[in-house]
Design a protein that fits this description.
The protein is of the alpha+beta class. Helix content is 48%, strand content 18%. The chain is built from 6 helices and 5 strands. It has a 5-stranded mixed β-barrel with strand order 1-2-3-5-4. β2 and β3 form a beta hairpin. α4 crosses α5. The protein is rod-shaped and about 85 Å long.
């Protein structure tokens, strides 16, 4: 190993150092992403007994999509660039005699890899967004139950769980009437914002 390293030219030593460093960082990033430690922050997951797993999955997917580094000047993109640049320079070293041409080709390959990865993440992000629920269009009229008691006359915020597009989701809630205790059946009257609903008790008619 030492003999092989000593036999390399200065340029090849630099290329190997860049390539191996980028490869090591890429492997570490991939492992952290796989185990969920590369989300750029702590992500609390609370799956309650009612089966609100779809909402948690959507939140996790949204967090992951924000951690991919869609901007051009990100650490992940620098790693991808040097990964493509380094390996292409090493593999093409014997085929391209001109160092200048080799450098240009390797840079172009590195840039291409960065944009391909960015397009991949953008496509994955659009797929995730396409599966999200538009609460403004879908929530009004949906029924559910109170998860955390809702104070009367909009005096405070509680939480409700509603069935929307065949998925159980949790939102903050206000009500104009009397206080709603935990477990009370409710109906969504209005969507105040993407996280907060105006609800009323669901009265069951007895014939």
């Amino acid at each position: 190993m030492i003999e092989w390293w000593n036999s390399l030219s200065v340029i090849m030593k630099v290329l190997w150092a860049i390539t191996l460093s980028a490869s090591l960082v890429f492997i570490i990033q991939s492992i952290l992403t796989f185990i969920g430690a590369d989300s750029g922050g702590d992500m609390d997951i609370d799956v309650d007994a009612t089966g609100d797993f779809d909402a948690v999955a959507a939140d996790a997917a949204d967090a992951a999509s924000h951690s991919t580094g869609m901007g051009l000047l990100t650490f992940r993109n620098f790693v991808n660039f040097f990964l493509g640049f380094g390996w292409s320079a090493i593999l093409l070293r014997e085929s391209i005699e001109s160092n200048s041409l080799l450098l240009i080709v390797s840079i172009l390959i590195g840039i291409t890899l960065v944009f391909l990865v960015m397009m991949l993440f953008r496509w994955l992000g659009s797929m995730q967004q396409a599966g999200n629920i538009n609460v403004f269009k879908s929530a009004v009229g949906c029924e559910g139950k109170v998860y955390l008691s809702v104070p009367a006359a909009r005096a405070g915020i509680g939480k409700v769980q509603i069935s929307i597009n065949n998925a159980v989701r949790e939102y903050e809630a206000l009500t104009d009437g009397d206080a709603l205790s935990t477990g009370t059946a409710i109906r969504v009257v209005e969507v105040l914002n993407e996280n907060t609903l105006l609800v009323e008790p669901l009265e069951t008619l007895i014939v």
